[in-house]
Write a structure and sequence with these properties.
The chain is mainly alpha-helical and 83 residues long. The protein has helices at 2-17, 19-39, 46-82. It folds into 2 domains: 1-43; 44-82. It has 3 helices and no strands. The two termini are 29 Å apart.
């Protein structure tokens, strides 16, 4: 259990230090997954597939940015309590 806690803590620390890289990687994986999903649907035009993939990736990015903002908020709040 302690090993899992340290892994989660190290992941959280990495995300705090690399917020934009995390959001960018999440966006890239989101658009890749969405394009792969949309390409398996044959009844759509290519332009519609690309638009849907972009919209899905934008929604995922907004969620990731909100998550990064929450992490930053709680880090600052925890830092203020530590002082």
């Amino acid at each position: 259990m302690a090993d899992a806690k340290t892994q989660i803590e190290s992941l959280r620390k990495w995300v705090v230090e690399h917020k934009l890289r995390t959001v960018g990687c999440l966006w890239l994986s989101g658009i890749t997954g969405s394009i792969a999903y949309n390409w398996s649907r044959p009844n759509m035009k290519t332009s519609v597939k690309i638009i849907h993939a972009r919209l899905h990736a934008q929604a995922l990015t907004l969620g990731a940015l909100a998550g990064a903002a929450l992490v930053e908020y709680y880090d600052r709040k925890a830092g203020a309590k530590a002082r």
